Amino acid sequence: MSDFLTLPRDLPTPEDDGAADHLPGLELPIIPLLSTDGRRVDLSSLSGRAVVYVYPRTGAPGTPSPDGWDAIPGARGCTPQSCAFRDHYADLRAAGVEYVFGLSVQDTAYQNEAAQRLDLPFSLLSDHRREFAHAVRLPTFTVEGEVLLKRITLIIEGGAISHVFYPVFPPHENAAQVLAHLTGGADET
Question: May I ask which residue range the UniProt record assigns to the signal sequence (predicted)?
Fold first, then answer.
């Protein structure tokens, strides 16, 4: 059985393939996304600063990962990334972040299980039809015939993307990297 909280030491590092180069400064389209708290969230209309970490898929106890999942650069680590944003949530809010969201193509029912199991203090957003991903041209990859989103973190201000973290690695350090960027701390990777 997989331990979704622990990352193997030999995970391959994703490389910057340029698939996110167009995102900084991009004004977001009006696309409401269903959240795990039952609301529809339009990222383009939020006032204040938002952090949206995009991830391929969370694992669930008793559900195996796709074959070769750990060998796909950037695939493994969704649960540790979510837990890191949970653990840094208060610090992010103190640094001026109004909203934190996780976003994947998994449906809301699946995301609800993860949000409850991981005790997340923020909502997860479902882009199960990939409307948002297509509109802003988020980087994707395909595994076992399913199109998933590559791991990327967006800082959104005034309906536009002000900063992008891509590729994100290691995933469990992403929340600390975002916090450092927002507070003028150590260099981000």
Answer: none
Both tokens of 13, joined, read: 């590092």
Residue 123 is encoded by which pair of tokens?
A: 């909502």
DSSP state of 101: E
Q: pLDDT in tens for each of the 189 residues of the chain?
A: 345 566 667 788 999 999 999 999 999 999 999 999 999 999 999 999 999 999 999 887 788 888 889 888 998 888 999 999 999 999 999 999 999 999 999 999 999 999 999 999 999 999 999 999 999 999 999 999 999 999 999 999 999 999 999 999 999 999 999 999 999 976 554
Burial of 119 (0-12, 13-18, 19+ CB in 10 A): exposed
CA distance 123 to 41: 10
Cα–Cα separations (whole angstroms), residue 142 to 4, 64, 115: 20, 17, 24
- What are the structural domains, with CATH classification, of the chain? 32-183 (3.40.30.10)
End-to-end Cα, the chain, rounded Å: 31
